[in-house]
Amino acid sequence: MPNWLLVFGPVAIALNHFAPGHYALIFASAAIAILPLAGWLGRATEQLADRSGEGVGGLLNATFGNAAELIISLAALRAGLHDVVKATIVGSIVGNILLVLGAAMLAGGLRYREQSFNLVGARAEATMLTLAVIALVIPAAYSVLVGGQYAGGERALSISISLVLLAVYAMFLVFSLWTHPTFFRGAKASENGEQAQPWTLAQSLLVLAACTVAIAWLSEILVGTVEPTAHAFGLSNIFVGVFVIAIIGNAAEHSTAITAAVRNRMDLSLSIAIGSSIQVALFVAPVLVLASLLVGPQPMDLLFGKGLLLAVFVAVVITGQVAGDGRSDWLKGVQLLAVYLILGLAFYLTPQA
Amino acid sequence: MPNWLLVFGPVAIALNHFAPGHYALIFASAAIAILPLAGWLGRATEQLADRSGEGVGGLLNATFGNAAELIISLAALRAGLHDVVKATIVGSIVGNILLVLGAAMLAGGLRYREQSFNLVGARAEATMLTLAVIALVIPAAYSVLVGGQYAGGERALSISISLVLLAVYAMFLVFSLWTHPTFFRGAKASENGEQAQPWTLAQSLLVLAACTVAIAWLSEILVGTVEPTAHAFGLSNIFVGVFVIAIIGNAAEHSTAITAAVRNRMDLSLSIAIGSSIQVALFVAPVLVLASLLVGPQPMDLLFGKGLLLAVFVAVVITGQVAGDGRSDWLKGVQLLAVYLILGLAFYLTPQA
Amino acid sequence: MPNWLLVFGPVAIALNHFAPGHYALIFASAAIAILPLAGWLGRATEQLADRSGEGVGGLLNATFGNAAELIISLAALRAGLHDVVKATIVGSIVGNILLVLGAAMLAGGLRYREQSFNLVGARAEATMLTLAVIALVIPAAYSVLVGGQYAGGERALSISISLVLLAVYAMFLVFSLWTHPTFFRGAKASENGEQAQPWTLAQSLLVLAACTVAIAWLSEILVGTVEPTAHAFGLSNIFVGVFVIAIIGNAAEHSTAITAAVRNRMDLSLSIAIGSSIQVALFVAPVLVLASLLVGPQPMDLLFGKGLLLAVFVAVVITGQVAGDGRSDWLKGVQLLAVYLILGLAFYLTPQA
Predict the structure, then answer these.
(1) To probe the interface with B, which of C129, C134, C175, C302 has the most B CB atoms within 10 Å?
(2) Does pLDDT of A188 surpass 90?
(3) Which residues lie closer than 8 Å to C81 by C-beta, 6 or more apart?
(4) B65-86 in b/e burial notation, b at 16+ Cβ within 10 A?
(5) Facing B342 at nearest CB: one of C149, C164, C179
(6) Does B353 map to a domain?
(7) Average confidence (pLDDT) over B207-234
(8) Lowest mean pLDDT among B221-225, C124-128, C184-188
(9) pLDDT digits (tens, 9 = 90+) for B247-271
(10) Residues 316-335 of C with CB under 8 A from A
């Protein structure tokens, strides 16, 4: 992605400030500017991954990638837009494992006949996603089955499950960064001679931080213009929440995961894609539930609609199958993308409530 | 199966023409005549499999086996019998992975302590089935959740998902026949010395074509008499659609898959059983939806009833577990057959609507 | 666990006889007395496991552990308390695979970086659990979809599925004890030099029998006081059925499975935990359904409530993922325990119906 595209960053900022009504133009320039930034972020992440193992590198990447989403969601929370926040959470979980991982496996599979990744780490991540699905399904089932019988039950369940998820996420970090980091490190990472000259640690961190800030800034502008732009094209609210914002918000992961796959570093690619979904489900979502007790007009619960839950469920089921044998090929990418497309069709055909 | 049973073929055809009211007699003679034909079809398929790899042989087999079902379903479609078509689709998917694969694993496991098959190909096929379940569940969920809010939504979703399925099926063929055929080829296939003298390619194709045509002819006679015969025995419509027609319609796959398993060629056995389910779900079903736009009194959608969807779901879940480790034993056969039996009991106890 | 705690056994029995109103005291002393007994039971089981393979040892253990539950459930059945029996069945299935296996994997994982177990046996057990879930879900789905259309349908389905389950369980015993016992035997079991002097067969059986009888006796006292004790602490009926009785009733498995895990005998640990769940689902539950035709005011069916079914479903799904790759670490234990905790929170917040 050529660096001169970076010039669209100032353009987006200027347009947003001086001509805020030109949604489609602002949207397009912010989106274009993000692409080279995401490329640089990917390069910095790869440099850090070389130092610290691919799992840690992927986790750093997922952390920085989701910082933008957390900031944006907190803004939406303050505005009381719980439905948008929930749609964005689901869209981010689903988008990372179906669209990002699917595109990475397809791109990697078109170049290599077969690619391998650390089976143990991938299975641990897939189990983490299953745990997340269970944590999101139980409150909804509770609401249907117990419902109004116990005032305050839904809120108490949402808050306590959020605390459980945060504790499990903390233990997952301990596991993947401290006690068992080798599970998330590719076997051939150190043999990979593609990187000509390694950056210093300071260089890597500086590029990472600068790109993150810039992407975060542009992401907010982008998201602010996504909805009016989308509506101008006749799309509904829930579709925008689940699909459009997620694709934009995860552009960084998208680009980095595909780059890693094309360089035959599938461990890094999986860590980015699945790790990002894990972080949204086990960290961002519970933090937003707890934060809603302090900011915003009313507390947000963990009750997701049936359509959103079904989307997360099918995405996690097929991801578990695809990630379960430590190898990938282009057909796996096609399978994940097909599920994403089917979900997209169903949400696209859902009229505004 | 002795060849003299072939004489029941002309008997069935003659009875059907001259004494069409003797349903049970026609049914029995057609069924008996199919057995040796299926045996010859299996032998021809094995000969072709020896030339082209077991995956391709299994796929050829599944294609020829399902040609009959497609013809019969098109006839039912023209008559507007959507419920029968859908029940037959589900019965065929479920029957191939539970009854055919279960019987093959049981028969093979009674002869060999443990049998192995190509893990990667089996997992790819299991993921394809999961994709099919998702594609069948989403329209039903859409119908429940969105329902009448958007006129035309269900039909648009059915047609667009059908197109996605056909595209994915085409890519699966490219994958299994062209880019990655070795995943569907048994490691020990070439070492198997049981075949005394190989047939020529022309001989194999001739036997395959002749048996297919004969089975197709007899299958139509068989299916035409199945319903009155079954009702004479006190069975309901939906049970006949899901179980009786599926068992008859898949007799060829059944016989060939068991023969392959007993000869310790589990890769061929799995390709036939799972491959046939994949073909029905990803090729026959969408083709019928699209064909219904041209033939028949009204278009058919992809909306399956909850009972049918649950049957497909549980069948695919347990098949994924059984096929996921590249080995089989007799207990796996028992487990698959037990699920088939439980589903059969539930449908058997369902009264006619 | 020090042996002098055994003195609490006579204390519990005496209190139960002479001061039956002191529920909490009786409960506490019976629970304390069970702990050393469970330890001795575990040691006797390990001795037998050394002789007969870990799978058989685990099965013996699961049989003796569940004998108490069967006796208690029969008493509840005679009293017509079908809801309590069903809650206990679900709690026992869920508790063994989430709490017992989770605690064992956590305890083992804190001592060993990674532990391995026989992949084939664990997968066979996980598939058996999936079969059990299907057998429990189908009657409930039948009831919702067919319902009152066919009088007697639910009872006929419950009885026939119970017979299928018993037949499959018998075949599973043949498989694990007779035709394929090595699948359930740990690779390193014979190399394990921790046991100083082996007991004689007579000694092992004597200790096993004595501990089983004592635990059975105390378990009944314990269960008799669990409900009033629990209510005194403000807990509801269903929570007590699913969680409190299950934890107490499976204390023996709990202790033995953790001891085995800490001694790096994960095959024994899995056989105990998953084997016990299998036995409850495929043996205890159908036996109770059939027994209810002879004892009790009215026959019990296999229809479980949606909340109970969802609990079993999510427990089996995550267990399948955790047990599917033949290795464990402390994070897997945390994941299983987190699901147990989430289910516990949901049932805890469910008010008495």
Answers:
(1) C134
(2) no
(3) none
(4) bbbbbbebbbebbeeebbbbbb
(5) C164
(6) no
(7) 80
(8) C184-188
(9) 766 776 788 889 899 999 999 899 8
(10) 317-318, 321-322, 324-325, 327, 329-332, 334-335
What per-residue confidence (pLDDT) applies to B55?
60
Tokens encoding A274: 């699945």
Helices (H), chain B: 8-18, 23-52, 54-78, 82-94, 101-111, 119-145, 153-173, 201-232, 237-239, 245-249, 251-262, 266-279, 285-291, 306-323, 330-348
Q: Residue B334 falls within a domain, yes or no?
A: yes
Q: Looking at the domain assignment, is residue A11 inside a domain?
A: yes
Predicted pLDDT of residue B352: 66
Query: Residue B42 has which token pair?
Result: 């299996």
- Report the b/e string of B295-333 with b at 16+ CB within 10 A: ebeebbbbbbbebbbbbbbbbbbbbbbbbbbbbbbbbbb
Chain B residues close to A327, C-beta within 8 Å: 120
Size of interface B-C (CB pairs under 8 A): 88
Residue B265 pLDDT: 92
Chain C partners within 8 Å of A164 (Cβ): 338, 341-342, 345
C299: left (phi over 0), alpha (psi -120 to 50) or beta: beta
B164 CB near a chain C CB, below 8 Å? Answer: no
Q: Give the integer Cα–Cα distance in Å for B103 and B99.
A: 6
Instruction: Please tell me the least confidently modeled range out of A106-120, A190-204, B318-332, C285-299.
Output: A190-204
C72: which 2 tokens? 């208690």
Say which residue the tokens 């119970």 belong to: C162
Cα–Cα distance, B28 to B38 (Å, whole number):
16
Q: For chain B, what percent of residues have pLDDT higher than 90? A: 44
* SS3 of residue C252 by DSSP: helix
CATH number, position B256: 1.20.1420.30
Spatial distance between the Cα atoms of B104 and A43, rounded to a whole number of angstroms: 51
Count of the separate structural domains present in chain B: 1
Whether the model clears a pTM of 0.95, i.e. scores above it, the answer is no
The C-alpha angle A297, A300, A304, rounded to 5 degrees, equals 140
Most confident of the following: A289-298, B102-111, B197-206, C212-221: B102-111
- Determine contact: C197 vs chain B, CB below 8 A: no
Q: Which of A123, A331, A334 to mutate to test the interface with B (most CBs of B within 10 A)?
A: A331
Who's near B323: CB < 8 A, 6+ residues apart?
Answer: B122, B123, B125, B126, B270, B274
CB atoms within 10 A of CB B144: 12
Taking all residues of chain B, what is their mean pLDDT, rounded to a whole number? 85
The domain in which residue C87 lies consists of 3-348
- State the DSSP H helix or E strand holding residue A143, giving kind and residue range, or none if neither: helix A119-145
| Cβ contact B150–A331 (<8 Å) | no
Question: Is residue A353 a part of any domain in this protein?
Answer: no
**Candidate ranges A213-227, B237-251, B328-342, C34-48; pick with highest mean pLDDT:** B328-342
Classify each residue of A106-121 as buried b or exposed e, where b means 16 or more C-beta atoms within 10 Å of its C-beta. bbbbeebeebbbbbbb
- Which residues in B lie closer than 8 A to residue C324 (C-beta atoms)? 324
State the burial class of residue A211 (Cβ atoms within 10 Å of its Cβ: 0-12, 13-18, 19+).
buried
Helices (H), A280-305: 285-291
End-to-end CA distance of chain B: 39
Q: Do residues B51 and B196 touch, judged by C-beta distance below 8 A?
A: no
Q: How far apart are CA B133 and CA B94, in angstroms?
A: 11
Contact between residue A309 and residue A299 where contact means Cβ atoms under 8 Å apart = no
* CA A244/CA C283 separation, integer angstroms: 51
Over its C-alpha atoms, chain C yields an Rg (Å, rounded) of 20
Q: State the amino acid at position C299 in one-letter form.
A: P
* Mean of per-residue pLDDT scores for chain C: 85
pLDDT of res. A189: 44
- With a threshold of 0.90, tell me whether the complex ipTM lies above it: no
